[in-house]
């Protein structure tokens, strides 16, 4: 009953001040929809950028880091023996990679394990040479981790497994040598091995530098180029079920297997920093917008409180207490806030749905946005909280009105 | 006779612009069902005293008992409850809530009290408006009524919770003689037939003379009668 009359009064004030109410609702509506839209968009960007990113980068890369030779005498207080630390020659070689791989595959968090051999050297055709890097891997496993098939402009990536001498080269290399599927090119490895390879396909990524230097061969071919046995592996690529766990999992793996495991966040910190920056800017801008729409509510409430100061005094004279007065004005703010938030959510739904169908082209395809329940929920919560504050501050002022002072005027 | 309101040595000071004692020890006993008027020169402290009696002003020293309750140490919420249940207030400037209908203005204190159902409150409010001859104005916005009519709505509102005491600060101060007479008759009827206590500040000596008892104030003190 008591609550009823406070709500009644709040509704009356909201309705009689309908012009101001409308403007304030509109403010919240716009702030709300832009907030939700921008944050959903940021999530979409992150998702699409990550999807592209993980097509060339594993969540975790496991390799043997270079080790410097140790000084013979570590005691620096006695006679110094002249030393010249160098990279230990055998350092690139992992011991017993098969058992490490088996161990990783047994881990529940690990989704994919892809051992590879990476060989640097020169592609050559006649007199011309291009420096580059060949990756040796099992084609099917490589395809399921990096979706290399989606980059193919000629041939089938998995055809590589049918041809022991086959190679899939980047489009930049193909252009420079003016070759296509079926042609042959040579590769001279850093270990001095030359192999003549048959092109089974050409890929083209969004990264031109890779396209000009990278090629894929079968694992065994790469091992030959390195003059190594069939157990040799230079890196093990690992994908997890949840890529966000990469950094933690990497340090765990390092501890267990003793080789360097590097999470993508560590390996590409500038990529991570970039996406973090974007998130910070978008969060900041969208929160500011929402806050500004809160000022709209604050403003209308402040105005109502000063216009209705006589009413407040009368209500208090009739026995309404401070809490009642606060309830009246917070209710008024909440009416505006709920109308605005509801409208904002609806508008955001419409805009997200429209943008989802806008074709951007390139790697991105459709505008990377979708309905993000979390962002909607976050927006609604923050919006209502700001509304409450924007109502509560003027309401508290109203509650402190001294009726006697008003009646004396 | 039981005392519905008693004060003992009520003192109050203003500090703005200079220290000034506006009430210098007011002790009064008001009987149940009494029609009491307060007169005195302008500035003698009548309104100030009435605001203290109404429990709206708490910045005073001295003792005050309403309906057997000593108000010492009561917080604002408790005092608001007392005002809601036991005191009806009528101002000089018929303060109504202008955005509501007359009926709603009368209903509001009852809705705050929450003793009756919505239908009962509406019915009772209509009864009060009828009693004051305003039934055909009930659904008009308060701002559309004449001054005399507004003041009667304010009285209906003051009566809605059947208060023990009805206080008025120059309730007829803004009305012509015909409307003043109407308001006076209503107040007298309430005191003598409904046994509600009336405390009214007035500068109308005829009005005062016709009441049960008149207290005259001067410079913050009650003059001996
Ligand atoms: N808020 C205030 N601050 C300072 N002085 C006040 C205030 N309110 C009233 N006064 C002074 O107190 C005295 C009594 O005022 P009031 O009670 O309104 O007198 P009355 O109603 O008898 O005309 C006057 O001199 C008035 O100027
Ligand atoms: Mg006065």
What does this structure look like?
- The complex is a heterodimer of chains A (409) and B (225).
- Chain A contains 14 helices and 12 strands.
- Chain A is of the alpha+beta class and 409 residues long.
- Chain A folds into 2 domains: 2-53 and 272-408, no CATH class; 92-267, no CATH class.
- A 6-stranded mixed β-barrel of chain A has the order 2-3-8-5-7-6, surrounded by 4 helices.
- In chain A, helix 2 crosses helix 12 and helix 10 runs parallel beside helix 13.
- The radius of gyration of chain A is 33 Å and the shape is elongated.
- Chain B is built from 7 helices and 11 strands.
- Chain B has one domain (33-60, 74-215): Rossmann fold (3-Layer(aba) Sandwich).
- The model of chain B has no long low-confidence stretch (mean pLDDT 93).
- Chain B has 225 residues and is of the alpha/beta class.
- Chain A binds chain B through residues 1-2, 4-5, 8-9, 12-13, 16, 310-311, 313-324, 403-404, 407-408, and chain B through 47, 51, 54, 56-57, 76-77, 80-85, 89, 91, 95-97, 99-100, 108-109, 111-114, 118, 157, 169.
- The complex binds adenosine-5'-diphosphate (ADP) and magnesium ion.
- Residues 46-47 of chain B line the site of magnesium ion.
- Residues 14, 16, 22, 40, 42-48 of chain B line the site of adenosine-5'-diphosphate.
